[in-house]
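Appendix B, Record 12. Input sequence as logged:
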Amino acid sequence: MRPQKVLLVGAWATLALAAAHCGSSSSSPTATPTPVGVKVPTPAPSPTPTPSGLPAGMVCDPTPPPILRMNVSMHSLEAGRVVLDSKPLVVNVDHYCDRWFGDWKFCETRPEDDPQRQACDYLVVGHAEDTGRWGPTWYFGSDLCSDFVGDCANHQSNQFLAVAKSTGTYEACAAVGWPVASNGTRCGTMNVTVP
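Logged structural output:
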């Protein structure tokens, strides 16, 4: 009986050696063990997602600070509907607002007529959840505006605009995960009465 056990153990050893060499090459890297008593550094946490991938030709330099909130206002009043506008506001970090507006605590990303305004707004707000376009996600009450086409609609060509067709609360929000100022919010609301 003893010889069979030795033979069986020998077969296992042969298989183990074959498996160890299977697919390996002499240039395979070997793991360096961590010396005892040496603390291995913990990887730094991933940074907050940063906006990237602006459409070709668009530039925003310097990059604006994180959003403080969305400012929602009435853009125009038409029969049976109100067109809403939204603008991201940012905090005056590192004198960002001073460059264009003076000594303000917060400001828009750039003046209206600045050629980089649209790109800077994009960087602060991100992509809308429902349309995927650059600009805020619009809500009617607590639901996506696109779910209530009879009451609310995303503007055809500008995600920063929405069409309010019913009386209620409308909200524009920057993308989830986009940087927000420490005392800020990614959204802005407006109560609308449609004539």
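Residues 91 and 106 are 4 Å apart (CA to CA).
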